[in-house]
């Protein structure tokens, strides 16, 4: 194994990817192969008709043409699924995904084409060649990489027991956590609860702030819909459209978290408490606000980071304690919750 592949496999393990077991891999191969054999069934029927009648006719030719068309369509679908999603019917059934080594994304067309071409060439040695390709994953006891994987520089992982590398948000969060080995994971633990008498004096001294559950401002009670065309006498305002259907006009400043707390030095922030069943959201996760016509967010050094997805782009991690201005349509993920930034022109 070359140094680059070894480093990529070591990083994949650190990120939380788990190699697909040999049994699951063989089953996925058999499912894919069985579908291709099913596409040849009409041609087999045509051959039987030819053998029984002993003469050429239109029916066997038509059935053979149908098989050729079905096989071509299946090969195109298989190539597309492998290149764009790292998947196939067999991999989907076994919950497996293939990823390219290095950048941990879908293999792409060149790699998928290389693996397909190698597998087709293996049929020059009938039965033995394809069987060796299918069973070669048994030779790699640690990562279960087959000869096809090594030719295409890919790696098949089990997404049931580990990270799905084709999920950009999950991958971005894992890379963020990897970049912070000294992170505090105590925020994932349930609070034991503290009475008022036993509370920390410094914490008790913090004045209360107005709160929002980001669910009480419903779309039916809000004027925040599709942005209108700007006109004279209007001002550009921003709102957050949350994944539960609620809308929140962006104030001058605010905090988002499981139970956000303002500091004594802070101003009159709007405190937005979000429910997060997966408990990936920090207590005070994110600061946000408006400066003029622009909306901004700032990750407050949260445990699981903040991911921002721009239109038609991969998610990127927001740098901690740095203001990041948002564009219309950007999607922000905090923990397991998401919201989209929208802008609207309203009357002054």
Secondary structure layout plus pairing:
Blueprint lengths: L2 H13 L6 H18 L1 H13 L4 H28 L3 H6 L1 E5 L8 H14 L5 H8 L11 H6 L1 E5 L9 H11 L22 H4 L6 E2 L21 E9 L4 E3 L3 E5 L12 E4 L12 E6 L2 E6 L6 E4 L6 E2 L6 E2 L5 E4 L2 E11 L1
Parallel strand pairs: 3-7, 6-7
Antiparallel strand pairs: 1-2, 4-5, 4-14, 6-8, 8-9, 9-12, 10-11, 10-13, 13-14
Features of the shown structure:
6-stranded antiparallel beta sheet, Tumour Suppressor Smad4, single chain, 6-stranded mixed beta sheet, alpha+beta, 348 residues, 10 helices, phosphoprotein, 14 strands
Describe this structure in words.
This protein has 348 residues and is of the alpha+beta class. The protein has two domains: 3-166, no CATH class; 208-347, Tumour Suppressor Smad4, CATH 2.60.200.20. Helices cover 35% and strands 20% of the residues. It is built from ten helices and 14 strands. The strands form three sheets. The chain has a six-stranded mixed sheet, with no helix packed on it. A hairpin with a 6-residue loop joins β10 and β11. The longest helix is centred in the first third of the chain and has 28 residues, at 58-85. Residues 184-209 and 211-229 have low confidence and may be disordered.
Give a short summary of the structure.
The chain is elongated. About 13% of the residues have low confidence. Helix content is 35%, strand content 20%.
Please state the CA-atom Rg, rounded to the nearest Å: 28 Å
Average per-residue pLDDT, rounded, comes to 80
- Please describe the biggest sheet, giving its number of strands, its sense, and whether it closes into a barrel: 6 strands, mixed
Shape: elongated
Structural class: alpha+beta
Low-confidence segments, ≥5 residues, pLDDT <50?
184-209, 211-229
Oligomer: single chain
Task: Supply the number of structural domains.
Answer: 2
Q: Numbering strands along the chain, what is their spatial order in the largest sheet?
A: 3-7-6-8-9-12
Order of helices and strands: HHHHHEHHHEHHEEEEEEEEEEEE
């Amino acid at each position: 194994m070359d140094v680059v592949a070894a480093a990529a496999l070591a990083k994949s393990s650190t990120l939380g990817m788990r190699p697909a077991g040999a049994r699951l891999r063989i089953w996925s191969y058999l499912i894919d192969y069985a579908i291709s054999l099913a596409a040849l069934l009409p041609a087999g029927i045509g051959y039987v008709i030819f053998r029984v009648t002993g003469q050429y006719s239109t029916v066997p030719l038509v059935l053979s043409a149908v098989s050729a068309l079905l096989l071509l369509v299946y090969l195109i679908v298989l190539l597309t699924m492998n290149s764009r999603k790292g998947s196939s019917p067999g991999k989907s059934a076994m919950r497996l995904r293939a990823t390219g080594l290095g950048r941990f994304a879908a293999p792409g067309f060149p790699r998928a084409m290389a693996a397909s071409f190698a597998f087709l060439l293996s049929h020059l040695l009938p039965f033995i060649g394809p069987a060796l390709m299918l069973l070669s994953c048994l030779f790699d006891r640690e990562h279960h990489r087959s000869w096809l994987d090594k030719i295409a520089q890919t790696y098949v992982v089990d997404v049931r027991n580990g990270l799905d590398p084709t999920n950009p948000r999950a991958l971005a969060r894992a890379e963020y956590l990897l970049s912070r080995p000294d992170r505090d994971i105590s925020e994932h633990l349930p609070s034991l609860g503290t009475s008022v008498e036993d509370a920390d004096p410094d914490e008790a001294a913090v004045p209360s702030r107005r709160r929002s559950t980001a669910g009480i401002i419903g779309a039916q009670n809000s004027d925040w819909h599709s942005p209108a065309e700007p006109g004279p006498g209007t001002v550009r305002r921003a709102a957050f459209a949350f994944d539960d259907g609620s809308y929140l006009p962006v104030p001058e400043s605010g905090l988002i978290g499981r139970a956000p707390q303002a500091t004594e030095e802070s101003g009159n922030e709007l405190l937005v408490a979000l429910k997060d069943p997966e408990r990936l959201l920090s207590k005070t996760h994110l600061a946000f606000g408006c400066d003029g016509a622009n909306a901004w967010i700032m990750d407050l050094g949260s445990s699981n980071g903040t991911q921002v997805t721009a239109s038609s782009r991969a998610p990127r991690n927001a740098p901690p304690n740095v203001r990041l201005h948002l564009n219309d349509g950007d999607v922000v993920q905090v923990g397991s919750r998401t919201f989209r930034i929208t802008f609207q022109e309203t009357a002054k």
